[in-house]
Specification:
Length: about 80
Amino acid sequence: MLSSLVAGLGLLCAVAALVWVRRLSRTLDALKQSYWELRYEYTRLRSQLSRLEPEDGSEDAAAAAPPATPSVSFVPLSAIRKKDR
């Protein structure tokens, strides 16, 4: 009699835990979905804003600055090699 009561109580606790975990899982899935929707919306709005308002002076500085010349140019190995002959 006592063992069946303990088994029934254990089964009831297991079912309650299963219901609680499933509810928690659905809540977590909803939070994940909301997070990704918010992140997508934030990225979309940020890209729209960057197209509308370029950074201050970035276009003027890029247009005014001359292209940088490379400080190191290509040197073929045949020019560096010692000529023993």
